[in-house]
């Protein structure tokens, strides 16, 4: 995930700890078992200037970003993919940290299986502000389900959705099946 030796490994079970503002060119979580945890310390921002993806075909991928730090993806000509690669039987959960989480992308893809057998993919928001600046938001297409929701312990989170410029409207596609043998579902829930 991160270059070797760039981030300390924690005895508390964190796979990576971001202690200072850090910018990287891409980030992929492709684990096939267990949970991967990235700790974003208070005041630190992890910025991805390029592709961001979570999940791999025929596997379950769980990623937890913990702490009060911030997470930003800048990929206005590309996709942020959370179980959205068109992979078969891909199950993904991404838990965002409690700082500000910002996606500046052309497309935010959550649970897109194309015509492959899909599974449920979840994006759980944290206690901070989540800003999605994307021209297209696609949740639950093909035979997959995409669910955007606030995590169980979230009491103060907010969500703003705009186009990639941050000033216009985004196009949203929720639950669009492309196969006669499966179903799809796209959901946004909140309180």
Structural account:
- The protein has 191 residues and is mostly beta strands.
- Helix content is 0%, strand content 52%.
- It contains no helices and 16 strands.
- The chain has strands spanning 16-18, 22-24, 27-29, 35-40, 45-49, 52-54, 60-66, 70-82, 91-95, 101-112, 120-125, 129-141, 145-150, 158-162, 171-176, 185-188.
- Strands 2, 3, 5, 6, 8, 10, 12, 14 and 15 form a nine-stranded parallel sheet that branches.
- The chain is globular.
- The termini are far apart.
- The model is unreliable at 1-7 (pLDDT under 50).
Question: In terms of topology, how is this protein built?
Answer:
Elements (H helix, E strand, L loop, with lengths): L15 E3 L3 E3 L2 E3 L5 E6 L4 E5 L2 E3 L5 E7 L3 E13 L8 E5 L5 E12 L7 E6 L3 E13 L3 E6 L7 E5 L8 E6 L8 E4 L3
Structure in a nutshell:
By secondary structure, the protein is mostly beta strands.
The assigned structural class equals mainly beta
* C-alpha geometry: globular
Extract low-pLDDT stretches.
Answer: 1-7
Helix content: under 10%
- Cα(first) to Cα(last) distance is 34 Å
Q: Measured on Cα atoms, how large is the radius of gyration?
A: 16 Å
Number of helices: 0
Please summarize the sheet with the most strands: 9 strands, parallel
Mean pLDDT: 84
Assess the beta-strand content as a share of residues. over 45%
What is the succession of H and E elements?
A: EEEEEEEEEEEEEEEE
